[in-house]
Request: fold
Amino acid sequence: MKHQIKMNQFKFSYFKHLSLLLIFCFFLFDFTSLKAGSLDSLLKDALQEKEPKKHSEKYLTYINKLSAEKRDSAAKLLLIYEDECKNENFDFGRARSMSLRAWFKNYDGKYEEGLRLLREAEIIHKSVNDSIGLALTFNRIGIVNLRYKRYDDAIKYVNLSLSYYLRLNDSVKVDVAYNNLGTIYVELEKFDKAIEYFKKTIEMRKANRNYYWLGYAYYNTAEAFLGMPQLDSADYYYQLSLKVFQDLTETGSVPPMVDMGVGQFYFKKGDLKQAIFYVSKGLNKAKEIDHKELILQGSALLSDLYAESKDFKSAYEAQNEYLELKNYIDSTNNFSQITEIEEKYKNAEKEVEIVRLNSAKLDADNK
Reply:
């Protein structure tokens, strides 16, 4: 039969360790705990705010949260707002909206396009002395570099964002940076260091009673233990994560990423039935919110699971879904272009620094 293909044809080397860690980038998404009332109150608060910078921050927070429920509507509002800022020469709001739009691009797998936006936003942030905006953008630049396994640059930019957050004494965003550093170290398979960062986020979220994100902190820690692999410790933190989402959040709903991670855990334990159950559940949730990254990862993992269980027809179908989406994402990104963009901006930064040093030397000589 045409579906009776050898099992190893379904193996994706990219998924040697399928990292499904939640990568935060403030503003934060909350797919399961939003209520229409909270959105209405955010919009009302933003529209009543007269101070331009505060209005921009509040309005972009509203758009970002709206994207969890109505992604297309949020994207349209963001473009309209960005154009308004440009027409009014309000560079503060324009750069903030560009940076958020770049983050939206990540969810569609358009990393190259997103990176260009982030680099443009970075220049504008600097021109208007927007330290918070710059820190947000540095964090996002770090994440894009992580996607392309440019680990040194990923660490550099997340640490840059962290340095701003620490100076601003902003515990929420410090938490964000710790999370992202932990994620990078998981990718580098430096699991002990990753767990150090994740445990910091656990303590911060407990102190703030931020249970939704505490669930993710437990989940990230479980993923790090799974990579070591220490299955007992991984199981302990997965169960904590599930319990927090089910018992302590408003809806009691488990996010798709967590379902998939639990499925991967059962895969490593050899329990294929439970693994398929959890990965399928997470994949269906990811499709409901059109989260292309999770759909890509979930379909690849599901293909492996079906192949292991010798259901080659289902493995073939899942593999086709993975390849179709992967081809789409690859067609919108070019690794060499990412490298070119980064090198271009590094050279520009060096040239600016040379000019600054030469100017400082001339000033000193003329004194």
Summary: DSSP finds 16 helices and no strands in the chain. Confidence is low (pLDDT under 50) at residues 1-19, 25-37. The longest helix spans residues 335-366. The radius of gyration is 22 Å.
